Amino acid sequence: MTTPFLQIRNIRKAYGDVTAVNDVTLDIAQGEFMTFLGPSGSGKSTTLYILAGLQNPTSGDILLDGRTLLDTPPHKRNIGMVFQRYTLFPHLSVGENIAFPLRVRRKPKAEVDAAVRRALKLVRLEGFEDRMPAKMSGGQQQRVALARALAYDPPVLLMDEPLSALDKKLREEIQYEIRRIHQETGVTILYVTHDQEEALRLSDRIAVFSKGVIDQVGTGTELYANPATRFVAEFIGDSDFLKGRIEATDGKSADIRIGEHLILPAVSVHGSARPGNEAAVMLRPERLTLSSTPVSTAGSLAATVKDVTFLGNNTHVLTETATQEVLSVRLPFGHEAAGSLRPGQPVWVSWDSSSAHAFCT
Ligand code: ADP
């Protein structure tokens, strides 16, 4: 087996009593776009800072091309960085900002000038060399920060919530630019965000962080279709949960009783699945459907419509089952039931069991 390009090996970081990162291990391939996704405080930035050399781990190792990085100071790691706030030098022009890391590396002037022009072209800011950062928009400043990080051609680029200070439209525009730049340069990117949509849009793979550990690593599709934990199921996409109890199981799938009359056959189970254990059954709102009679080939529960919201490409219907469980349903635009639903109306909520996942504690 070939050595992985970048290896994070059993990294732990404690600040006094707080364990910010607890035994994180991850391999990243050369040229991969890997995103650390998770809520605030889950250890994403700390892991990134350890890669950058801005923090030292309490234990564990980081290897690039099979060699430890821990004894290399940050400025010698050859890793580019772009952070949340535009960290441009305000007293330097755009061109001087981008040239800075190359000057520090004592590159000859002709090489620096060519690299600055190349980097500006990459972020589509040709001709902006002499502009001062204060005379540019937030999005332009962040593109300059990106150009500066890429100018000396680092093999690895770290990005910590680089777009969080920008409005939605600009954020989407620059996400598109970042994807293009990733494809054009082949640079390996580690990207931190708490925004699932951003992670899905950008990444080859996503590592989902929760409380200092990685719950699951996979492509967006894998995480969405096969979440390993309830946390991942809730964090990627929308989810509904029904309380159930395991009737029978082979450890991988289980027959799960919901209420008195319904048994869901062969649902994928995660966690400690034993007969009699409680299980939270996850359903995706867009995989649910509504009808006036139960659907015999699928799981169906009687419910009452609580609220109906038209959202353009889908209609969001909030329903409540006889056992007071709330199921949110998303009907695609044009669904025959969507137009006529009213609060208080009885309905049957149905789903295909193959889209269900059960999580046991
Ligand atoms: P994230 O990037 O996912 O928001 P962080 O890695 O910044 O999370 O933080 C993880 C945990 O470590 C949090 O509980 C945070 O309060 C704590 N933490 C981070 N940096 C420090 C620090 N310098 N001193 C003490 N605690 C810290």
What does this protein look like?
The protein has 361 residues and is an alpha+beta fold. It folds into 2 domains: 6-233, Rossmann fold; 239-359, Nucleic acid-binding proteins (OB fold (Dihydrolipoamide Acetyltransferase, E2P)). The protein has 8 helices and 20 strands. The protein has helices at 44-52, 94-104, 109-122, 138-150, 168-185, 196-202, 220-225, 230-235; strands at 6-15, 18-28, 33-37, 59-64, 67-68, 79-82, 156-160, 188-193, 205-210, 213-218, 240-249, 253-258, 262-270, 278-283, 288-291, 299-310, 314-321, 326-332, 346-351, 357-360. The strands form 4 sheets. Strands 6-7-8-3-9-10 form a 6-stranded mixed sheet, with helices on both faces. α2 (94-104) runs parallel beside α4. The longest helix is centred in the middle third of the chain and has 18 residues, at 168-185. The radius of gyration is 25 Å and the shape is elongated. The relative contact order is 0.11. The site of adenosine-5'-diphosphate (ADP) has 12 residues, from β2 and α1. The site of adenosine-5'-diphosphate has 12 residues, from β2 and α1. It holds the Pfam family TOBE_2. It comes from Mesorhizobium zhangyense.
